[in-house]
Amino acid sequence: MITFILRRTCLALVVVLTVMTLAFVLTRLSGDLAISIAGPGSTQADVEVIRKAYGLDRPVLVQFYDWTRLALTGDFGSSFFFKDKVATLIAQRMPVTLSLGFVGLALALSISLPLGILSALYENTWIDRTATMLAMIGQAMPSFWLGLLLMIVFGLQLGWLPISGTGSWEHYVMPGIVLAFTAIPALTRLMRSGMIDALSSDYIRTARAKGLSRSSIIFKHALRNAAIPVVSIAAVQLGFMLGGSIVIETVFALHGVGYLAWESISKNDFPVVQAVVLVLASLYIGLTLVSDILNALLDPRLRGA
Amino acid sequence: MPRLTQASFVIGLGIVGVVLIAALFGPWLSGHDAFAQDLNARLIPPVWMEGGSTKHLLGTDQLGRDYLTRLLYGARISLFIGVLTVITSGVIGTSLGVLGGFYGGRIDDAVLFLITCRLSIPVVLVALAVVGLIGSSLTLVVATLGLLLWDRFAVVARATTMQIRSLDYVNAAWCSGSSPLAIMRDEILPNIASHLMVVCTLEIALAILLEASLSFLGLGVPPPLPSWGLMIAEGKDYMFFSAWVIMIPGLALFTLVLGINLVGDGLRRAFGTQVIK
Amino acid sequence: MSAILEVEGLAVRFGPTQAVRHAHFTVHQGETHCIVGESGCGKSVTSLAIMNLLARNGHRQAQKIVFAGEDIQAYSDRQMEEIRGNRMAMIFQEPMTSLNPSYTIGSQLTEVLRRHRSVSQAEAEARAMALMARVGITAPAMRLRQYPHQLSGGLRQRVMIAMALMCEPELLIADEPTTALDVTVQAQILRLLAELKQELGLGILLITHDLGIVARVADHVSVMYAGEVIESGRTADLFARPAHPYTRGLMDCVPVPGKIKAGEPLGSIPGTVPVMKDGFQGCAFRFRCASATDACTRDVPRHEISAHHHVLCHHPVTDKGSRA
Question: Strand (E) positions, chain C?
Fold first, then answer.
């Protein structure tokens, strides 16, 4: 078990380093950074000044090494636009994104788990078909459009919820629902197939032969096994949600990390963009690691000697 | 979930068919130019609402352009991007997956590593960053999405190749002296094709949704091209008064993606439910 | 010895397929009754049907299913739940997958006792350990905390037996309990079951396809073919004077050292078991039977050869070699 965790952590670190490289390369894609920073209408002299000021005259590998070295200590440099340390900016905005992610995940689980279980128990009945249809609809719905629709209905017409900003918990309801919709189809499917497999297994037949009650069989025996993959996938889904928060945060004007990235891209604020890509990717990698560990912890067969 | 009926597959096929025809012929037949502005005829509502006219069946947008024509043109853009992206990502992903599944060992480790790295990247963010830094264009969107969305192809191609690799007819081909390339081409690809087709449909739908998100945020297809996502973004400012401005392209997007997903689901059932985890 | 289980006229169908057409047998206390037959003859389905554990699309019909004097045929699910695991227990063929991988052996053992009796966890664990020791599981205290995947197949099957006995049942149904085990372990398990039967006065219904097992442990045998019990009787009688052509064929299939000669073909019954659909009439074995006649296409009578020895045949063999 310990070796398993260690090995997975090493792999995760290597992936992080690779993503760091990618993030660095990403921002150098547009050619000469100095020109982009200086903006249109700048003279050659201006560009040279900027080049020197931001250390862009050094060889690329040196720049990369420098950035990586600092990044590993949490120093992502300073933002061009905000005149603040990038790390600070990200730290300020992270709570919003994390809250949104957790709200989304909680909503998603509270819908997909019961839905998946019911679909499995009433396999091939109208309940099952309705759940499938709902999942299909959720998958086809563009998230930004759903957000706008919710805004119109709940924000404007019914006036129940605020449509932007981050004042109170109410601000997280609609964005949370939209985010949940992205995860519900996959989680429901997984819960359903897991339960169906569990319910048709030999150990459930044994449980029935022991005269155990129906609820005990479903919740104690079947669910315990069916839920294992769902729990670990939920962690991965959280990673996706955090990574994909940019659209929803922009629609609802939630000042999280995604919104920060969006602002930075439109302003060519490279240090921020680089750092955000790295941070979000690292979060995802960390969550997949958590997912693997959860999987191993929950399944006694994997806990292993 | 393999319980949607034959009916849903047919419905999906119907939707896609209708959109295809509309995309190919619609903009010609509508009698309007998708780009012709008429500032005297701005934000005319659709014909079934008060103030609508039969001259513009779906009304006009904020620059007086005929909405129906733009909608039909937008179908072209969505389908175009969807298909081209999937061709690119399909080639990349399938190659990687087949190589990894076929050779195993170090090559497979490398492929898995690449897949892991790719999955860790926040796709929307990176796509936005690329387009934002280089400048939006149709080609760039296709290239970026194509280079980012190959992961499912790789995973499925790899898993199915591994299942087939050890089967007898592949071994027979080895024994008769075929080269690895020939085996991959003649034995493996035809047999994983059905699974890949299912992935294709899902990925087309995903690409269309992603392009819409990018265009919505202003970093996808450049205006004045009428991408549905862009139409929604342009209509956002008016949505509280004229909700139809965002409802119509949104519904179009939703319907198309739903149709494609239904087709994909039907294909998955038709080809047997060998579930690849 | 009183009859613990009486079954008459049992039929089970899954949609249009008749898995069991007519099963009848009686199990007495302290007796092992074997149901023997090829794969597909409906013997496993019969055992599940008695407990009413059939799959969702299975339908059961019977003239009589009487357990310890009670007619359990019309029992609701809840009523059956009271009996299962408690007075009637079952062990299955695949010990590797019959235990829940996510719970300890101890919890799965105590669970069944606490379901049917009001005992504390400690009392339940004590009984579990005692039973585990009785069925030959070493270090029972340690086993309580172990998980199924940490045990071998033979050990798991012993756990299943212990689990079945937790509530002191009157009837034990064993569906091919040794098929998935090594030969040496098979012998141990069978011996264990025989001992327990003596000690506890259990009635055992043992399903198997292995005539060797039947010869070794059965007091009474029912031979099934294509969903019907075509012959039944005391083991000694059946083996000495098999009356049904199928039973004869089965016996001939088993090579006996010393009796077969080198160069002679091994016995076999040509053809395969047919799938039974609605509306089938007459004897199911007639397509493979050397003594089949026109009469065999009509309803088959049940002959009584001697006390407790029944056969379902138009042309039963009454003594070695001659045909009626």
Answer: 3-14, 17-28, 32-36, 58-61, 64-67, 70-71, 88-91, 171-175, 203-208, 220-225, 228-234, 302-306, 309-312
The tokens describing C317, both together, are 């063999």
Q: Which of B216, B218, B258 sits opposite A137 (nearest CB)?
A: B258
ipTM value of the model? 0.86
> What pLDDT shows up at residue B4?
56
Residue C67: φ, ψ to 5°: -115, 120
Chain C's closest residue to A225, CA to CA, is C102
- Chains with at least 3 CB pairs less than 8 angstroms from chain B: A
- Which of A34-48, A189-203, A205-219 shows the lowest mean pLDDT across its residues? A34-48
**In the A/C pair of chains, how many CB contacts fall below 8 A?**
74
Q: CA nearest B117 in A: which residue?
A: A15
Give the closest residue to A195 by CA, choosing from A166, A221, A213, A232.
Answer: A221
In a domain, B154, yes or no: yes
More confidently predicted of C284 and C85: C85
Q: Output the pTM of the full model.
A: 0.85
Q: Is B261 inside any structural domain?
A: yes
Q: What is the pLDDT of chain C when averaged over all its residues?
A: 87
Cα dist from C210 to A207, C155, C234, whole Å: 27, 22, 17
Going by DSSP bridges, is the β-strand pair C220-225/C64-67 parallel, antiparallel, or unpaired? unpaired
Instruction: List the domain range (segments joined by +) for residue B133.
Output: 66-268
Tokens of A101: 């992610």
Residue B183 within a domain: yes
Considering only the beta carbons, identify the residue of A208, A213, A214 that sits closest to C53: A208
- Whole-angstrom Cα distance, residue A198 to residue C236? 44
Please say if the pLDDT value at position B276 is more than 70. no
The domain that holds B175 is classified in CATH as 1.10.3720.10
Testing the interface with B: which of A115, A123, A136 to mutate, by most B Cβ within 10 A? Answer: A136
Q: Is the Cβ pair A211, C115 closer than 8 Å? A: yes
pLDDT class of A272 with cuts at 50, 70, 90: confident
Count of domains for chain B: 1
**Which of residues A120 and A299 earns the better pLDDT score?**
A120
Closest CA to A82 of A253, A267, A254, A250: A267
Residue C59 corresponds to which tokens in the numbers above?
A: 């339908």
B156 touches chain A (CB under 8 A): no
* Dihedral, C165, C170, C173, C174 alpha carbons, nearest 10: 40
pLDDT of residue C324: 39
Binned at pLDDT 50, 70 and 90, residue A166 comes out as low
According to DSSP, the β-strands at C171-175 and C88-91 are: parallel
Q: Which chains touch A (3 or more CB pairs under 8 A)?
A: B, C
Judged by average pLDDT, the poorest of B127-131, C83-87, C266-270, C292-296 is: C266-270
Task: Give CA A204 to chain center in angstroms.
Answer: 35
Most A CBs within 10 A among C81, C86, C142, hence the mutation to make, goes to C81
Which residues of chain B does A141 touch, with a Cβ-Cβ cutoff of 8 Å?
254
* Residue B20 domain flag: no
